[in-house]
Predict the 3D structure of the following.
Amino acid sequence: MAQTITRGIKTLLAEANGEIETMTVTDAKAAVARGEAVIVDLRDPREIEREGRIPGSFSCTRGMLEFWIDPQSPYAKPIFQENKKFIFHCASGWRSALAAKTAQDMGLKPVAHLGGGFTAWRDAGEAVEKVEPRKR
């Protein structure tokens, strides 16, 4: 029997984008420069190794986000307890919109996502840090 998806990705993204803040590259860079924000890179390590990363960003794969945010989780990361704005990004802004919505729903605040993701950052000519592949 085929599955019937009642709320597809387009609906989920529209709902998320209607409830979260989307930041431009310029605004995100300025917030970080003022010490008010942390950029959280949700991409897979292989994407980061292939494309590079935003200097100073914190890597948290999308699959671990909820576990790293929750202070009661055995996987909690102290960075998510800081009094900062968390600006999530992925490659193009889809995963980060859903992640920002989830983080906001969990009570993390303030949160936003980088409109256009890493692609927008790179295409704006902003700095990109090369990441050497890890030995697997």
User: Anything to note?
Assistant: The mean pLDDT is 96. The helical segments are 9-19, 25-33, 45-51, 65-69, 94-106, 117-123.
